[in-house]
Amino acid sequence: MSLFSVDNFRQEILGVGLARSNRFEVEIPVPAELNNFYRDFGRLVSLFCEETNFPPLIVNTKSYKIFGPSFQRPVSAEFGGEGISMTFHVDREMIVKRFFEEWCYSVVEPDTFLLGYQEDYIQDITIYQLDETDNVTYRCVLKDAFPRSINLLTLNNSSQNQTHRLTVKFDIVTGK
């Protein structure tokens, strides 16, 4: 007898529910290096985050053979892959863009090309999955995150009713 039936599926969905991709919140603490100017900025960043992802978890394997056919053995785990992208609405004063630019400048100073101290620019970013009543059902902490790239913002005279959306890619050490 098959466990799947439309009625069983419907009952499970009605009882447990499904996670909705539009129910999330991002918490980005302000790095120590930017705390003087952007101290209360974390709330604005959370409100303006339009899109993000939970990081992938990749178990790297290596082929191993003692005798007979080879098999895969795990050798390491990688969190975040090529980084985590987040897309933000940009306010009229461009404070969101300036914030992420300044954060990048704390990683590599643009005039001298000197690297900043890691403890001054890394932050733990938390992504929350929320239910329909804003209760946290899942959370993921991006450990020691920092912005790696900021996308360009296109200016276009024919885009009358468009707003800027800034995509920032973060590098992370681990996700948990």
Oligomer state equals single chain
Distance between the termini: 38 Å
Q: Structural class given helices, strands, pairing?
A: alpha+beta
Helix content: 10-25%
Question: DSSP helix count?
Answer: 5
Q: Can you describe what's shown?
A:
This protein is α+β, with helices and mostly antiparallel strands. It contains 5 helices and 9 strands. The strands form 2 sheets. Strands 1, 2, 5, 6, 7, 8 and 9 form a 7-stranded antiparallel sheet that branches. The chain has a two-stranded antiparallel sheet with strand order 3-4. A hairpin with a 5-residue loop joins strand 6 and strand 7. The radius of gyration is 21 Å and the shape is globular. The mean pLDDT is about 90.
Give a brief rundown of this model.
This protein has 176 residues and is an alpha+beta fold. 22% of the residues lie in helices and 35% in strands.
